[in-house]
């Protein structure tokens, strides 16, 4: 089972290629079944590996390497052949991630059968989905940071293709470009970090790098730089502050794609990368602190922005950003297990929420929660499952979110009470805006009667995945927490003296106090949005309009980045103008002109003086010659004789007078 | 003392004769005169040869022999020269050498 783990990314890849090249395109294509079949295989294999690991049948981490390519190196006077390996590295985190990714992807693909049915590019959609998942799985299993980076970029490309899937419309095109370029901004840092790693370590293999770092060969400064570069990549991919701006727009893609992006394949990559390279962060306390604060800021900002959004998918997008902030913060304070635990449970309930939102959108054909309301009777299964998802994300007992969030809060409290307070506040906001979503969508009276009238429960292909995910959202936390299964499986052994120690928060307070606060927050939400009309909410909005505006503008981060874009656009134009007007006109063309003028002058000089002089000498010799000829050679024999006589007498005189 | 005729006398005679011939060759307009002057110059050389033979190698006859050869050659040369003169005269109706200048460069 484990020795064939390399099949897990390769099978969906093969499936996506087959789907792209075989079969006919159309809304009723049968090719998607191939994609689902491939994913089912991967899910089965991933579950098998997880089961073996959980039961202790196999020893993790498991590593296998094959030669990939080699190239001649001449370093330090020694010439040798450097061979780059490609391989798999399965540790506990990877085993868990494999299950999460394949499970969510399978469910999303089954769900999409109904959601995307009839789309003219139905087949292509599945090819992209398969490719997206294959890229993510490759990232998860790779033991080589170079391959990880390649898969990382493939994930970016696939997300670009899927967010911009409906490329006839301007919105998705804009969103896909925004997502791609924003994540690339972070990838610059990641790329530099990788170069730095290879320069320092001379290898991309994670185990070798870990060995190098754990022996203390890596200077703290270098570790910090590398860690921050990796963090930049993770910040872009996992939509952390300040590069989170792409994720709320990424919902322009089909809703199941949003579920996939938000739960398993895209944003998880950033967190997973930080976890995969955790040993570098451990070597640099500064980088750890940065990770924690980035996560904290993200968690708080995104949570506040979600409070005022009316687009159902936008609320969920902000909540994803916020939850990712929780995970990042957990990783930053040393809560390796806590962060990955939350990543796992969050994948289940966020996929559930997005697929539920997709079901709602499918029914009412609108994203705007102001056009919904009272849908609970029309769509009971969707309502119940989404309520469970909301219950889980709010972190109430006994849902999965309760266990993971509790673990994060405990870790953060141990690190710094201030951070704990901020994060607790963000958690309360989470409960508030998520229940606001439920109240606005499903409770109250229908605000758009036409839409409400036409709304209907989604087919079983869509509700089936919802039910399964709802079940997982309830029990996964308990099951993984039981017997410390997750902590046993996914743990990071800190080096001696590095283990973060801190005060332990009162378990009673965590269990009951936080839950009480969350319930209070839900009550507040009910007070504001639970009724038939929203008088209180409206009056609050009137009073705090500046705050609402700031939140709806997302604190102006989009404007800042658009300003940056337009600034770079302007500076590019300026540079272009400088290039054409100054460099080309003055330097290049002017230089040419100057050369031409000098050449003309030189030519003139040549013709006037040099040539004239040369010609003059020629003419002179001709003149002298013809003059001499007319003077001497006149055909008079006696003159010739006289010359002979004179010459002979001269020579004779010379000879005789010697 | 009787005045002996020495080699210098002969050489002086030869030189005078040569100069006379030279003068004639350079100054005569008539081409026949020029030929005759050239004969004088030949004979000046012959006198020298004979004198050198007589005074420097009295027992030898090489000088006289060469002088005889020169007389023969001069005769042949005059034959050719006069033939040329006749040909020129036929074409140009003149014997004045300055009017005959078609060989100028």
Order of helices and strands of chain A: HHEEHHHHHHHHHHHHHHHHHHHHHHHH
Total helices of chain B: the number is: 3
CATH arch. level architecture of chain B: Orthogonal Bundle
Beta-strand percentage of chain A? under 5%
Distance between the termini of chain A: 121 Å
Q: pLDDT below 50 for ≥5 consecutive residues: which ranges of chain B?
A: none
The CATH class of chain B is Mainly Alpha
| Overall radius of gyration of chain B | 17 Å
Number of strands of chain A: 2
Q: Provide the CATH topology of chain B.
A: Helix Hairpins
Number of H/I helices of chain A: 26
- N- to C-terminal distance of chain B: 60 Å
Summarize the main sheet of chain A: 2 strands, antiparallel
User: Biggest protein-protein interface?
Assistant: A-B, 10 and 13 residues
What's the overall geometry of chain A? Answer: elongated
Structural class of chain A: mainly alpha
Mean pLDDT of chain A: 84
Can you list the strand order of the major beta sheet of chain A? 1-2
Please provide a brief summary of the model:
The complex is a heterodimer of chains A (658) and B (105). Chain A has 26 helices and two strands.
Notes on the protein architecture:
The complex is a heterodimer of chains A (about 650) and B (about 100). Chain A has about 650 residues and is mainly α. Chain A has helices at about 5-20, 30-55, 90-115, 120-140, 145-165, 170-200, 205-215, 220-235, 245-250, 255-265, 265-275, 280, 285-305, 310-330, 335-365, 380-395, 400-415, 415-440, 450-455, 460-480, 485-490, 505-530, 535-545, 545-550, 555-630, 635-655, and strands spanning about 60-75, 80-90. The termini of chain A are far apart. The relative contact order of chain A is 0.07. Chain B has about 100 residues and is an all-alpha fold. Chain B has one domain (about 5-100): Helix Hairpins, CATH 1.10.287.3510. In chain B, helix 1 (about 5-25) packs antiparallel against helix 2 (about 30-55) and helix 2 (about 30-55) packs antiparallel against helix 3 (about 60-90). The interface of A and B includes residues 629, 634, 636 and 645 of A.
């Amino acid at each position: 089972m484990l020795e064939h783990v390399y099949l897990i990314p390769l099978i969906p890849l093969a499936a996506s290629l087959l789907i792209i090249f075989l079969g006919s395109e159309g809304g009723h294509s049968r090719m998607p079944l191939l994609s689902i079949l491939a994913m089912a295989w991967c899910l089965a294999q991933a579950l098998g590996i997880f089961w073996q690991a959980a039961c202790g049948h196999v020893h993790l981490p498991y590593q296998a390497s094959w030669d990939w390519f080699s190239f001649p190196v001449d370093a330090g006077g020694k010439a040798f052949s450097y061979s780059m390996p490609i391989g798999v590295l399965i540790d506990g985190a990877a085993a868990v991630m494999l299950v999460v990714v394949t499970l969510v992807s399978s469910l999303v693909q089954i769900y999409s059968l109904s959601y995307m049915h009839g789309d003219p590019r139905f087949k292509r959609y599945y090819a992209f989905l398969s490719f997206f998942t294959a890229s993510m799985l490759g990232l998860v299993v790779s033991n080589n940071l170079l391959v990880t980076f390649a898969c990382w970029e493939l994930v970016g490309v696939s997300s670009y293709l899927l967010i911009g899937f409906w490329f006839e419309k301007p919105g998705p095109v804009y969103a896909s470009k925004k997502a791609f370029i924003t994540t690339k901004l972070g990838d610059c840092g990641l790329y530099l970090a990788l170069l730095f790693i290879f320069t320092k370590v001379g290898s991309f293999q994670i185990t070798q790098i870990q060995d190098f770092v754990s022996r203390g060969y890596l200077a703290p400064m270098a570790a910090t730089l590398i860690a921050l570069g990796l963090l930049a990549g993770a910040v872009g991919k996992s939509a952390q502050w300040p590069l989170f701006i792409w994720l709320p727009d990424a919902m322009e893609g089909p809703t199941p794609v949003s579920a996939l992006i938000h739960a398993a394949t895209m944003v998880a990559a950033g967190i997973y990368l930080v976890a995969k390279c955790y040993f570098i962060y451990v070597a640099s306390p500064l980088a750890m602190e940065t990770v924690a604060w980035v996560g904290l800021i993200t968690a708080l900002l995104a949570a506040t922005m979600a409070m005022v959004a009316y687009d159902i998918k936008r609320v969920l997008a902000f909540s994803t950003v916020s939850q990712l902030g929780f995970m990042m913060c957990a990783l930053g304070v040393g809560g390796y297990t806590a962060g990955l635990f939350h990543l796992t449970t969050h994948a289940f309930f966020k996929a559930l929420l997005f697929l539920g939102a997709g079901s709602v959108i499918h029914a009412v054909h609108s994203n705007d929660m102001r056009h919904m309301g009272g849908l609970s009777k029309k769509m009971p299964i969707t309502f119940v499952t989404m309520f469970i998802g909301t219950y889980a994300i709010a972190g109430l007992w006994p849902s999965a979110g309760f266990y993971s969030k509790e673990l994060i809060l405990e870790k953060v409290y141990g690190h710094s009470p201030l951070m704990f307070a901020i994060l607790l506040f963000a958690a309360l906001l989470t409960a508030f805006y998520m229940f606001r979503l439920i109240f606005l969508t499903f409770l109250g009276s229908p605000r758009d009667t036409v839409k409400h009238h036409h709304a209907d429960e989604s087919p079983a292909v869509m509700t089936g995945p919802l039910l399964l995910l709802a079940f997982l959202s309830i029990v996964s936390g308990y099951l993984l927490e039981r017997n410390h299964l997750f902590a046993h499986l996914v743990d990071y052994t800190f080096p001696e003296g590095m283990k973060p120690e801190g005060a332990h928060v009162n378990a009673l307070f965590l269990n009951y106090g936080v839950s009480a606060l969350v319930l209070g927050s839900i009550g507040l939400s009910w007070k504001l949005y639970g009724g038939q009309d929203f008088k209180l909410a409206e009056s609050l909005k009137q009073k705090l309009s500046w705050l609402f505006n700031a939140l709806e503008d997302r604190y102006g981060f989009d404007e800042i980045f658009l300003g940056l874009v337009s600034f770079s656009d302007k500076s590019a134009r300026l540079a272009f103008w400088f290039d054409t007007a100054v460099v080309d006109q003055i330097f290049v063309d002017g230089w040419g002109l100057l050369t031409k003028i000098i050449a003309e002058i030189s030519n003139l000089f040549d013709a006037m003086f040099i040539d004239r002089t040369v010609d003059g000498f020629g003419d002179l010799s001709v003149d002298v010659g013809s003059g001499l000829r007319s003077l001497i050679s006149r055909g008079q024999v006696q003159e010739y004789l006289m010359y002979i006589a004179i010459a002979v007498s001269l020579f004779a005189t010379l000879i005789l007078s010697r | 003392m009787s005045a002996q005729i020495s080699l210098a006398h002969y050489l002086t005679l030869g030189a005078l004769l040569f100069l006379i011939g030279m003068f004639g060759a350079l100054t005569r307009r008539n081409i026949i005169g020029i030929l005759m002057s050239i004969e004088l110059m030949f004979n000046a050389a012959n006198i020298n040869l004979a004198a050198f033979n007589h005074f420097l190698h009295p027992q030898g006859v090489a000088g006289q022999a060469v002088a005889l050869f020169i007389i023969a050659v001069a005769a042949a040369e005059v034959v050719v020269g006069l033939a040329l003169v006749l040909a020129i005269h036929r074409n140009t109706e003149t014997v004045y050498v300055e009017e005959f200048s078609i060989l100028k460069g």
